[in-house]
């Protein structure tokens, strides 16, 4: 009896010193922001890139989440397809997919853009990695026919694959001089803030569907 009492005493002490707290030891929900210069944070400090700012906003709201920046400036959907397998590591809980702007700027056939995006989505689905698809719109100078073919890509793929969907990555930022760099295409730090604010509700819903919770 004395021996059992001693064991119980030490068990209580050890329990107090090392509490079983699964939330404290749990890893953050690992997401990947996969895209082009709009994701990479072209000409911005790393902390102002979209993945970093979006992560900070989510953490401020109580989510235990980390968003890796897998954006590459200049990437087309073809380039993204070529690197998706190694840019999205095992253990990734979800991907925020933003590609296509450079396809439109180069006048690549929208049908090719759609095939590439569909292949990226399919590869991620084969690995059971959920996708939040972030859309793009054709530049006005590409003409009405091109815009009609290009702009339909993203809602069509989102519906086909049942994806979380944010229609336009530059919503509220495009054509707003005070929110863009001098090139008139990329967001400045203030512009990224607008992007984050508008993307946040969709991102929160996406996180909820893949098991992310607030602390």
From TrEMBL:
What InterPro entries is this protein classified in?
A: Ester_Hydrolysis_Enzymes, SGNH_hydro, SGNH_hydro_sf
Query: Taxonomic lineage per UniProt?
Result: Bacteria, Pseudomonadati, Pseudomonadota, Alphaproteobacteria, Hyphomicrobiales
Query: Which GO-annotated molecular functions does the record name?
Result: phosphatidylcholine lysophospholipase activity
Does Signal show up as a keyword for this record?
Answer: yes
From the UniProt annotation, give the residues forming the signal peptide.
Answer: 1-26
The record's Gene3D superfamilies line, in alphabetical order, gives: SGNH hydrolase
Name the source organism.
Rhizobium daejeonense
Keyword Zinc-finger, does the record have it? no
Any idea where the SGNH hydrolase-type esterase domain is?
34-191
**Which protein, by its recorded name, is this?**
Arylesterase
Q: Which UniProt keywords apply?
A: Signal
